[in-house]
């Protein structure tokens, strides 16, 4: 085996090991949530509520909680089909319910790379506060949060 072959072999072996480590780390982060974690349980329940009112043929989004610092309460990641919730910015039930519903509607609307790109273009054009999709998601979050809460009484 030549030196270049060895270099490529070690390079790709290193990439594979790094990928495995990242996947293990991701799994550990997901499994470290306690089963009694009210945020996780509530977010799952609200997601099921959204799916029952607004079903989708797409694969159900994954809910991921992160403890990172952020100005956001949540975000929808189109490429990984996940709703990311910032634990520290959803400290009460009403905020968390609203955030899950808000992000669910991004999932519901952004169904393709083209729609994702349109969202980004409109963000530059209108800013976050006036973005048509953000306005819609905010209204849906507020409206459906009250419906969800009244259904749980």
What does this structure look like?
This protein is mainly alpha-helical and 153 residues long. The protein is 65% helix and 9% strand. A 3-stranded mixed β-sheet has the order 1-3-2, covered by helices on one side. Helix 2 crosses helix 3 (93-109) and helix 3 packs across helix 5 (132-151). Strand 2 (74-77) and strand 3 (82-86) form a beta hairpin. It has helices at residues 3-31, 38-53, 93-109, 113-130, 132-151, and strands at residues 62-66, 74-77, 82-86. It has 2 domains: 1-32; 34-151, Zincin-like (2-Layer Sandwich), CATH 3.30.2010. The model is unreliable at 30-35 (pLDDT under 50). The longest helix has 29 residues, at 3-31.
Range of helix content? 55-70%
Tell me the radius of gyration. Answer: 19 Å
User: SSE string, helix = H, strand = E?
Assistant: HHEEEHHH
Largest sheet: 3 strands, mixed
Q: What is the beta-strand fraction?
A: 5-15%
Task: Output the CATH topology of the largest domain.
Answer: Zincin-like
Ends: how far apart?
71 Å
Structural class by secondary-structure content: mainly alpha
Q: Architecture of the largest domain in CATH?
A: 2-Layer Sandwich
Number of helices: 5
